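Hi R.,

Here's the chain you asked about this morning:
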Amino acid sequence: MYKELTNDQENIAELLALVTQLAQQRFQNIDNIPAAAKPQKVKNYPLPLEGLGTTAVLEKFKTEYQHLMCGSSGPRYWGYVTGGATPASVLGDWLATMFDQNTQSVQGRGDVSAIIEKETIQLLLDFFELPTHFFGGFVTGATMSNFTCLGVARQWIGKNQNYDIARTGVQKLIQIAAGLPHSSVIKGIAMLGMGSANIHKIPLLEDREAIDVDKLEAFLKQQTSGEVIVLSSAGTVNSVDFDDLKAISALKETYNFWWHIDAAFGGMVACVEDKKHLVAGWEKADSITVDCHKWFNVPYDSALFFIQEKHQKRQIETYQNSNAPYLGNPMENFSYLNFLPENSRRFRALPVWFSLMAYGKKGYQEIVKRNINLADQLTTYIKASIHFELVAPTRVNVVCFKLVNFSQEIQNLFLQTLNSRRKIFITPSLYKGEACFRAAFVNWQTTQKDIAIAIEELEATYQIIKTR
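And here is the predicted structure, written out as tokens:
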């Protein structure tokens, strides 16, 4: 064996201790790590012929790259709906890497990871108060979760039209209806060959990002084929608006359509008593997407899908790895290999299992409620300010606002200046075509102290911009 590998094997305890020390320092100092990254350039350097050794490489990383890593898992990183990583989820993620299981089969052979994954899905159904007739699994993110669900929806449409899309490809136009789908949903439709341009945009309610259910029903009445994919939002990316899921679930009794709900982070409201009405009726959906590296606060990459078990035949037709007879019945010889796009997949369920078991439902309820309350506090400041104004109502945990009476050029300069100060990080967005700033609260570490810092930064940045 190459000498450096032998040395690492012999000194593994020391190496792990060094990494543990680095992780401990980051956890303890995350509050002081800049929320935004500095501009960076790609370096060009040759691969060394002789290895440097892991200890030396760790030092090189600390010297050259660690200081460039922004606090994206910290309490004031409010862009892109990025959660932090709870201590329990980090431990679970480390163990997932250390045990290095290819999570597929529940048949054993030294690997219990798929069993833990199925058990974690049951815990999550309990968490979301969804019925046990949903089947689920873990993928990389909301994009792949939406893709997985819509792949089965596509197969369901084909079978209703008497052909097998998984075998022969898309031969007929597939009708898709949506109000304001997330870009990841549109991307999934494009990758599946259904054509993103074929999405029929149903009008939204006035002053809302929610679909007009009456207009949706009118569209469904016009469909002569009878088979449609309906896309719903359980938390839009801009203002966290929710389609009327209860009203759409009632349409299922009259019309034949596949109902997919993108609940990437909005689904978390199911655990909060005064917000759970926003997802009432979602138990009637055919498929649901939830992103775990957002409000669940586990490390990247992690998301899950829920698909009703009655669709498992279509799911197997879509994702079965081989039609070889010797593999037997995919349900009797269960393997995730036959139920989702990936063949090789890491043990993503373990960080979620660790965090769920460590903090329980009450722990996550506290995180969700606190984030909603902090969003309300920032909203209160914006409403009272003479410098800023809300662009959209704060419905859950995202605040959309802008400067009062300034050009778009100055708005852009303000955001650039604010983020360059690196105390907080927020992103630009569009609400009904109007440019704004967007602050998303999903991190378990964010507190009132961070709101106070944010207000100071907003005021200080305003004074800088005002003098230009």
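One quick note: The two ends are 63 Å apart (CA to CA).

Cheers,
M.
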